[in-house]
Amino acid sequence: MTDAGIGPTSARDRIEEMDVLRGVALYGVFLANLVGFSTFDIVATGPQLLSLPTAPLDFTLLQFVLVFVNDKANTLLAFLFGLGFYLQMQRAQARGANFERIYLRRLTVLLCIGLVHILLVWNWDILHLYAIAGFVLFALRRLSTRTLLIAGLVCTLFSYDLPGQLVAALGLTESFDLESTYSESAVLARQELAHSGDYPGLVAGFADFLLRDYILSGLLSGWVIYALGRFMLGAWVGRKGWLHNVPQYLPGFRRVLRVALPLGLLLECVGRLVGYYSRTGRLPEWDQWSLLSATIHQLAVPSLAAGYLCAIVVGLHHPRARTFLAPFGHVGRMALSNYVAQSFVIAFVLFGVGPGLALAGRIGVAWQIVIVTVAFTAQVIVSRWWLARFRFGPLEWLWRGLTYGAWPAFRRANEKGAGAVSDPAA
Questions:
Q1: CA-to-CA distance for 321 and 344, rounded, in angstroms?
Q2: What are the C-alpha distances in Å from 127 to residues 74, 110, 116, 326?
Q3: Mean pLDDT of 5-13
Q4: Three-state secondary structure call for residue 242
């Protein structure tokens, strides 16, 4: 049974800038996920990584990823999903449709996909977070534009660090044995599981890691706040209509670019330097250096992400930059399928299940960047080929069929063009 007056967004309703932005964000998320999972005491120890022949280059490239990519790609992707969800609600209301039921069903399906993904494929899934944040955004949809902006900024600036600090302040860290989760023995045990090829054991082992690191630590609530803040900012921009008619607002994008990009980069570098010099004892003793470093980072992230957004939007209106940026739109038009596909690539690289390469602890950041760039380039090529023949990505088609209660036509038949017919939130 379908709902009258509502359905997948037509190709003419798509906003090209959003597709390209989403594609760029997915490259950054891909890179941050592989580097982060392979580097920060999850499946590889520090001594193992330092013993690699590429270690000096790895350290330099890791700083590059932390400054330019880490948190910024997630911020941009969450912002775009929030904007997309808002646009879907707006268009459904304009058609007079019962958008509440469709919207909630859409989020429920996304939540189910995310739960399967996080339990069976990838511990760092974001789909369940986006679904939960989407439910909250739906409940807050009647907030004034000003309140939406203020709440979004507060949630963005004070997010996932706070729950962890609360758990520590309440003395729950020792009760849940959280510190041992990142001990060298725990890391080596996870690495052994990753190399073993034992898929049921791998799932069980990482389910325990998920319970300790993500749920008992309080990070789940923090990441929900993290996503919700960015969703609210996306909804705020949606209300302003700045991406609906980019040529009209292009001067404004240029002005924001000139301020946000250098400011964000400056703040990020200062924050990292404060953190580094405080850890190496080159600053006067003070208990709050780490808090100051984290605070500067939290301020830098939305500024730098906004700078990226404006740079891409402006670049799409410059012939040479457009030639480079436009292909990212192919990936962005089937973002759900490509995001999940990236998880399988990471699993293939790090784990020894089936034909997996079992490279956890055996490759550094240099090779990780090469792997991500090659795999993402393949996604661009495959996405373009796919969208020339099919109206949706495979998971987008499943998402829509379960959401609208009817399976839309999958093949393009005799349709011309490679623009997918899909919702802006996908």
A1: 31
A2: 12, 6, 10, 25
A3: 48
A4: coil
Query: What pLDDT is recorded for position 162?
Result: 59
Spatial distance between the Cα atoms of 395 and 341, rounded to a whole number of angstroms = 10
Q: What is the mean pLDDT of the chain?
A: 89
CA distance linking residue 83 with residue 80, whole number of Å: 5
The domain containing residue 24 runs over which residues?
11-276+286-404
- If pLDDT is split at 50, 70 and 90, which confidence band does 2 have? very low
What's the total number of domains in the chain?
1
Is there a domain that residue 390 lies in? yes
Q: At what angle do helices 394-404 and 99-120 cross, to 10 degrees?
A: 140
Q: Which of 5-19, 263-277, 295-309, 364-378 has the lowest mean pLDDT?
A: 5-19
How is residue 205 written in tokens? Answer: 């082992």
Report the alpha-carbon distance of residue 42 to residue 194 in Å, rounded: 11
Distance between CA atoms of residues 418 and 345, nearest Å? 25
Q: Which residues of 180-206 are buried (b: 16+ CB within 10 A; e: fewer)?
A: ebeeeebbeebbbbbbeebbeebeebb
What is the C-alpha to C-alpha distance for residues 421 and 389, in angstroms, rounded to an integer?
Answer: 12
HSE on the CB side for 99, CA within 13 Å?
16
User: Can you tell me the mean pLDDT for 167-195?
Assistant: 78
In one-letter notation, the amino acid at residue 6 is I
Ordered alpha helix ranges (H), 140-197: 145-157, 161-169, 172-175, 184-196
Domain membership flag for residue 227: yes
Q: How confident is the model at residue 423 (pLDDT cuts 50, 70, 90)?
A: low
Reply yes or no on whether the pLDDT at 4 is more than 50. Answer: no
| 253 inside domain | yes
Cα maximum dimension of the chain: 70
Name the more confident of 87 and 277: 277
Contact 406, 390 (CB under 8 A): no
Asked if residue 255 belongs to a domain, the reply is yes
Residue 67: C-alpha distances to residues 143, 206, 298, 369 (Å): 34, 28, 12, 15
pTM: 0.92
Residues 6 or more apart whose CB falls under 8 angstroms from that of 180 comprise 186
Quote the CA–CA distance of 39 and 53 in Å, as a whole number.
Answer: 15
